[in-house]
Amino acid sequence: MAQASSALTIIRSSARAAGSRQGTWKWDRAFSATKTCVGCGAEVRPWVSKAGVPMAEAQFARQRFCCGSCAKKHENPMRDIAARQKMSETLRRIGHMPKVRGGNGRPTPLPVMKLHAALGDGWLIEYVMKTGVKRGQSRLPFCYKIDIANPSLMIAIEVDGSTHHGERARQRDSGKEMFLAQSGWSLFRVKNAEALKLSTISGSQAILRTLRGEC
Ligand SMILES: [Zn+2]
Q1: pLDDT in tens, the chain (215 residues)
Q2: With left for phi above 0 and alpha for psi between -120 and 50, is residue 109 left, alpha or beta?
Q3: CA-closest candidate to residue 6, choices 79, 83, 78, 61
Q4: Among 14, 46, 165, 180, which is least packed by CB within 10 angstroms?
């Protein structure tokens, strides 16, 4: 960032007749002083409040841009190609990667896909179940997403991967459990490894028997 030395020379009020006193900043000079914006070259005048009080002289002397947006535009180092390249090299070197947070739009995990494929017809992946609540009516969300569901059998299977850890996830899960139970659904929770094991069983009936612990 440029230092104060680059601040442009303030053009004072028009020269007085030799020997006469120059007026004060507040009453005289502030109203005729101008400088040039370092960014866009526009003429900058001291800011004057509605009550007619101008900004301090020292403050005007420090001002380099016509306005905040001009300053952002011209002082943002990312506008410089070399700076951008240096930044991206640094990010690559330190192995920076945006955090993968899961949620909507994440790819379906493999155990879910395999178990869904093994279950066959009537089973839906990432089934969205509307709770029917209106805004502000209840603390329930508008809908719950179920990993694998069979709406006609009212069976839900949740495959708990790495996204089902932590206090918030637990609370969300228990809310979902309660809603499903009240709606008359059965819910089974399986870990990724169990889902993969279940997917090797042939036939949805056999898979359900295993889930219910009937084998
Ligand atoms: Zn400007």
Answers
A1: 444 444 555 555 555 555 566 788 988 889 889 999 998 999 999 999 988 899 999 999 999 999 999 988 888 877 788 888 898 899 888 888 766 555 566 778 889 999 999 999 999 998 998 888 877 777 778 888 899 999 999 999 999 865 556 677 777 788 888 899 999 999 999 999 999 999 999 889 999 999 888 75
A2: beta
A3: 61
A4: 14
CB atoms within 10 A of CB 133: 14
Q: How far is the CA of 91 from the centre of ligand 1 (A)?
A: 32
**Residue 104: helix, strand or coil by DSSP?**
coil
Spell out the CATH class of 110-211: alpha beta
- Tell me, in angstroms, the distance from the centre of ligand 1 to residue 39's CA: 5
pTM, entire model: 0.50
CA 68–ligand 1 middle distance (angstroms): 8
Distance 35 CA to ligand 1 centre (A): 11
Residue ranges of the chain that CATH labels 3.40.960: 110-211
